[in-house]
Design brief:
alpha/beta, TIM Barrel, Lyase, Ornithine Decarboxylase, Chain A, domain 1, eight-stranded parallel β-barrel, 12 helices, binds pyridoxal-5'-phosphate, Ala_racemase/Decarboxylase_C, EC 5.1.1.1, alanine racemase activity, pyridoxal phosphate
Length: 425
């Protein structure tokens, strides 16, 4: 998916640590507990870490399920798993955003498992399966229930009943999984979590009443595992159908988690959680380590005098004599323009020789200027860390997110294809 261009010579790259990815997966599985299986989410090109590099590493670490965005991404991930040792069972691949006309053949060819909720999803798969004379119950799908996020999924009630009718015993389709997605898991004690899980339980009763027995019941994400809110009630729900409980996690695999929040006390529904504070102390995030280290090198150095203007629109004026280093990274690489700094508004920084060097002026398309006045030993060719750790200092996607007014998710998956991902031990 991200072949490193053979002619890549520009000094910018992202190192992907295989051992950290493995350790994070194991930490997630430990936090989820023995009753809950973790589906490793590698969607959006593994949150910018390269799905085709990360998938085989996660599979070798024991992941039995991987989650991808689309059929297209699923096919690339499936192909990447060809390097697994013979005899090792390849993980299943859940296509999390449904399917679109034209994708059904690839899904069946390569054994991808789509999430479905629109009747047309079933029409497409059913028609393709019948065209191939596939036996009953041979094409596995997971149905998503909309329990309150109003994004994907079918609402419990008549719409779900109509969807469930499509899984008659003679249908080539098999309802292998039933899932939902929780909207507010980083707010550990948000009553919405409970409201959604109650709706999910109702939907599962409907599934059972329709005579269907899915093998998997899944919900939750990084934050719900971190807060311990989930998978707390998930195993019991799954067990009520004789199914395996599963939770899906992405961000934690790559070494990040959102800070856990709490609802305002006056908005709490007192009967919802007897022990609210249980859900506010992170049990996973302290164990996580960022998988990506994003690096570049100094390509130019200069000195400016007091009063000299720096960068586009002269948003920064040197208040004193300064030494500046030029880095070959800009917003076309996914290094956010909102990390720019003016004299009145500080921006982001990078690490040079283990010390923070602040950005000065505007981040431009291909280039960024940093202040190295306080790091006198710098030279052309020295490594600069854009995301990562050095000498006890750390700059994370969460730091970029705070400065740029976005989330670690968006920072990570916004790093562009122009930055080759290189797997390191
Ligand atoms: C992205 C996604 C996840 C994983 O979320 P994280 O917060 O990254 O762990 C889980 N489930 C669904 C449906 C998703 O889209």
């Amino acid at each position: 998916m991200r072949p490193t261009p053979p002619n890549h010579t520009r000094p910018i790259w992202a190192e992907i640590s295989a051992s950290r990815l493995r350790d994070n997966f194991h930490a997630l599985q430990a936090a989820a507990g023995t009753q809950v299986q973790v589906l490793a989410v590698v969607k959006a090109d593994a949150y910018g870490h390269s799905a085709t590099e990360c998938a085989p590493i996660l599979a070798a670490a024991g992941a039995q399920w991987l989650g991808v965005t689309s059929a297209e991404e699923g096919l690339a991930v499936r192909a990447s798993l060809a390097i697994l040792p013979q005899g090792m069972t390849a993980p299943r691949i859940l296509v999390m955003c449904g399917l679109w006309p034209g994708e059904e053949a690839g899904i069946l060819d390569r054994g991808l498992t789509p999430v479905v909720w629109e009747p047309y999803h079933l029409d497409l798969l059913e028609a393709e399966a019948r065209r191939r004379n596939l036996p009953p119950q041979s094409v596995a799908v997971h149905a998503e229930i909309d329990t309150g996020m109003a994004r994907q999924g079918v609402a419990p009630g008549p719409l779900l009943d109509r969807l469930l009718q499509r899984f008659a015993p003679d249908s080539p389709l098999k309802l292998e999984g039933v899932m939902t997605h929780l909207a507010s898991t980083e707010i550990g004690d948000d009553p919405q979590n409970q409201v959604q899980m109650i709706a999910f339980a109702t939907a599962l009763q409907q599934v059972a009443a329709a005579g269907l027995r899915p093998d998997y019941v899944h919900a939750g994400n990084t934050s719900s595992t971190d807060s311990g809110y989930m998978p707390q009630d998930l195993p019991a729900l799954a067990a009520s159908l004789g199914a395996q409980a599963m939770t899906r996690a992405g961000l934690a695999l790559y070494g990040y988690a959102l800070p856990l929040e709490s609802v305002e006390p006056q908005n709490r529904v007192s009967h919802v959680h007897a022990h609210t504070e249980d859900f506010l102390s992170p049990r996973l995030s302290p164990k996580l380590k960022p998988v990506m280290t994003w690096k570049t090198r100094i390509v130019s150095l200069r000195e400016v005098q007091c009063g000299d203007t720096i960068g586009y629109n002269a948003t920064f004026v040197a208040p004193v004599t300064m030494r500046l280093a030029l880095l070959p990274v800009g917003y076309a690489d996914g290094f956010r323009r909102s990390l720019s700094a003016s004299n009145t508004q500080p921006g982001g920084s990078v690490l040079l020789h283990g010390r923070r060097a602040p950005i000065v002026g505007r981040v431009s398309m291909d280039l960024t200027i940093v202040d190295v006045t306080a790091v006198p030993q710098v030279n052309i060719g020295d490594e600069a860390i854009l995301l990562g750790e050095s000498n006890g200092n750390r700059i994370g996607a969460d730091d970029h997110a705070r400065t740029a007014g976005t989330s670690a998710y968006e920072i990570l998956c916004g790093i562009s294809d122009r930055v080759p991902r290189i797997v390191v031990p």
